[in-house]
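Contributing new records

If you add data, match the layout below exactly. Sequence lines come first and carry their own label; structure lines follow with theirs. Keep one chain per record. Anything else will be rejected by the validation script.
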Amino acid sequence: MNEPWCKQDKDGLVLSLHVQPGAKRSEVVGMHRDALKIRVAAQAVEGQANAALLRWLADRLDCRIADLELLSGATGRQKRIRLRTECAAAEVERRLKP
């Protein structure tokens, strides 16, 4: 598949996400440039949206929250998240694509 938002690196996969907080429910809604767009059902207050995003990703990817690391974008919508996994990028893409 080789999606631009899901790249392999030496420690696993790096996901490029565009996150919209304050949604009615957390869900993938498509693409925003080269990032996967995700709506999160939490407000962008005191890290609530980031925490909700990591919980949602862990659930969708069937991994531990500790396997996810916010690399950049803690206070913005453009986020890069490392997923420490041996899972193939194609499987992660399949689990997250709408």
